Amino acid sequence: MPPNFLVENNEIKIKPSLDGGGVRNRSDVWRAVVAISVILLSVGIFVAKKIDFSAEQKFVINKVISPLTGLDLSKQNIGGDLNLPPMVVQPKLPELQGAVLSCDNFSAQSIMVKDQKSGAVLLRKNEYEKRPIASITKLMSALVLLERNLNWTTSTRVVADQVSDTHMYAGDTYTITQLWQAALVGSSNKAVLTLVDASGLPREAFIERMNDKAKELGMIDSNFTDPTGLDDTNISTASDLSILISEALKSERIRNTLNIKEMDLYSKERKRGEHIWNTDWLLLNWIPNQLNLRGGKTGYIPASGYNFAMQVADDKGHIINAVVLGARDYQARFTECRDIAKWALENYKWPE
């Protein structure tokens, strides 16, 4: 025990001085502090060396150290192995084998190619530049809709909003599943708004949840103002959209829907059928490619230019996200996204 302490009635107390005034001076106080510090340090040393404590040492631990630190050391395996958390092993990064591809060869204003597993950026151009993203917004809408426990077999009427749409008309009746597919396959704006109204959330609350979801995912440069992407105030970056496409494709329902090449709808009200092709021309192979496409989403409004975000894999299972924003025309977004993805898969070597 430290010289200024005594054990009385199973408690540790400071010894009174000869003049009855407690600790005599400040030097005694500092000696007491130093003594306790030595004890605390000793505990760490003893635990590390797996040495059993004596009865007196354990008494000091329980009566002095535990109250000071807030730790119940009596329940620790003193003298035994420490329960340390497992070490986190950082994934090895893919290594570039050839020359860096010049982004000057592409019309896209922003470009991002990112390795899914390690998070390594394989190619970049203005990846943090904020831009309107158009219908890529619908991926975030889909993620929020999946939180709402929709009844996929129930039917509802298409909203009467005056928004551009080539497949749906106000008053048509479709199931939630059909609306979901029309929203992601054909990028139907009325389908998305109808789903939002069917979700049980007011539109303002739904949009608020979209922005909260973006923050949760780490999309710090993104802002959503409507669920369709028609507003040019729906903004994001190529970097953030790499996060979004990655998160969206974790959902089997989103992934499977984005890979539907075509679908048919029939309006009982108008007694007319609608055939919807997927807006992703790489999936349809209308833009020739040999990519193992896991899913992609298009977006266009005049303020954004032509946008595309996708995810592809090689034959060994390495997955990359590729995003192009502001390409010059409808086809360029696909050819440029195809070419940067193909280059990355061919010119990077992944550690095995």
CATH topology of the largest domain: Beta-lactamase
Shape: globular
Number of structural units classed as domains: 2
CATH class of the largest domain: Alpha Beta
Radius of gyration: 31 Å
Q: Can you write the helix and strand succession as a string?
A: EEHHEEEEHEEHHHEHHEEEEEHE
**Assigned CATH superfamily of the largest domain:** DD-peptidase/beta-lactamase superfamily
What structural class do helix, strand and pairing data support?
Answer: alpha+beta
Put simply, the count of helices is: 9
Strand content: 15-25%
Give the helix/strand layout.
Elements: E1 5-8, E2 11-14, H1 26-49, H2 55-69, E3 95-96, E4 110-115, E5 121-125, E6 131-132, H3 137-146, E7 155-157, E8 173-175, H4 176-185, H5 189-198, H6 203-217, E9 235-236, H7 238-248, H8 252-258, E10 262-267, E11 272-277, E12 292-301, E13 305-313, E14 319-327, H9 330-347, E15 348-349
Antiparallel strand pairs: 1-2, 3-15, 4-5, 4-14, 6-9, 7-8, 10-11, 12-13, 13-14
Helix pairs in contact: 1-2, 3-6, 4-5
Can you give a write-up of this model?
By secondary structure, this protein is an alpha+beta fold. It has helices at residues 26-49, 55-69, 137-146, 176-185, 189-198, 203-217, 238-248, 252-258, 330-347; strands spanning 5-8, 11-14, 95-96, 110-115, 121-125, 131-132, 155-157, 173-175, 235-236, 262-267, 272-277, 292-301, 305-313, 319-327, 348-349. It folds into two domains: 5-75, no CATH class; 95-349, 3-Layer(aba) Sandwich (Beta-lactamase), CATH 3.40.710.10. It has a five-stranded antiparallel β-sheet with strand order 5-4-14-13-12, with helices on both faces. Helix 1 crosses helix 2 (55-69) and helix 3 (137-146) packs across helix 6. The longest helix has 24 residues, at 26-49.
